[in-house]
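Ticket reopened. Same input as before:
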Amino acid sequence: MAKVNSSLVAHLPMFAGFSATDLDSILSEAHSLRVAKNNNVFEQGQDAHSFFVLLHGHVRASRTTPAGEQIVVRYVATGETFGVAAAMGLQHYPATVTAVDDSVVLAWPSGTWPRLVAQYPALATNTLQTVGARLQETHTRVVEMSTEQVERRIAHALLRLAKQSGRQVATGVEIDFPISRQDIAQMTGTTLHTVSRTLAAWEAKGLVEGSRQRIVLREPHKLFVLAEQGSDEPSPPGT
Amino acid sequence: MAKVNSSLVAHLPMFAGFSATDLDSILSEAHSLRVAKNNNVFEQGQDAHSFFVLLHGHVRASRTTPAGEQIVVRYVATGETFGVAAAMGLQHYPATVTAVDDSVVLAWPSGTWPRLVAQYPALATNTLQTVGARLQETHTRVVEMSTEQVERRIAHALLRLAKQSGRQVATGVEIDFPISRQDIAQMTGTTLHTVSRTLAAWEAKGLVEGSRQRIVLREPHKLFVLAEQGSDEPSPPGT
DNA sequence: CATCCTTATTGCTCCAGAACAAATTCCGAC
DNA sequence: GTCGGAATTTGTTCTGGAGCAATAAGGATG
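Engineering reply: fixed in the latest deploy. New output:
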């Protein structure tokens, strides 16, 4: 089994408050795994055999409806936990996780969770915080979908992606993994057509630049203003 | 301080796996509190001073956007936990919780959480499961909002409410607390106008009956079919 | 470098449902 | 029982963005 250096993961929220010895012990139960771009780490409905930490790369969690439509649940950045279905009491994975770039994950068999938690209770509280934060984000998304129109939702989604996985480049902040118009549509509850049109309009205004599977935010601040108040709205007086 | 009988809460998911002695010890840190209909238990943005279990009644959690629009995050039924912001690492409540009926809650100061968890680690794992389940529900809601049209979303929302807090009555299943068209609109991301029209149409078909703040599902099964496949769609062949 | 396939762009039509606008009904308070 | 505010219903108009239909532009493959 590949040996993982505890210093690589010591700073992750999942392992906050653990000594190097504890960490080594926890890591000894895990194995690391390469997942090539466009391959699934696991699939929706499968038995939740393992839980994971993403060491390198980017993966996407998505759900498929009975009718076959997909929506993107979230993108997972390096260092984040995913697939903790078993800890949440689920027998099966509620979503499919796919590598959007060549990625490396650390995997623990779900069976080890109860024992690890019994021995290191902080694992449970750390995970609770992570899951809690995700719940808040998802509520925010529900609020946005309920109250904002498409343009602002797309702006919010891009800003969030840039914050989570943005990379400074010459012309602005680039989203650091391949992402299609379709993906953005599935994150914002719209169609790839509308996303394409919206980005084209922004590109004409110099707010973003993009090409196939690539987006650079040239003017994050202007995008932020647009996300917060919409493109026309004559800034509320008295506020 | 009002004494709470441990047998009242022993069966709740929050306290699964606790002995009567443990329970008494945990309960000794809590106090119970009456909240009259239409009063808030706490408000969005306030310091997260306590966490709660609902002993009696019904409360609603809602979020307000900067622009002043409200959306309903969820309804809490008897026995459920709410306000566990502190356990999730939040300083402030992310939503406002309002009693929709005269209610009784059990409250623990947030400061007791770390100590309780240290002493009773199962509290953390139980809470993790609860929060995890809520995350899944919220994802389901996102999926619905992304892929279904209004009529089906309303049907799903009603069925969920009926499942959670339905009461058998002569003509069907009644939702066991006052809920307005506006509330349903805020749960499904639409307007009260559209909800009113939709319910009126269903009432004409005998699917539901309703009056001010009251809804009875007369034909839950038909509503279910509608929720799953829409009102027209000619049942997919070969499936 | 020719072919194929995936992704992206763009024009056009159409409609679900939002927005606006009144009425109307119900309930609690005095 | 009358008054006043909140909840609901219902009619009408309007539009954001979905749906449909091509076309174009990249990348990958052999």
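Residues 183 and 235 of chain A are 31 Å apart (CA to CA). The first strand of chain A starts at residue 31 and ends at 35. Please confirm and we'll close it.
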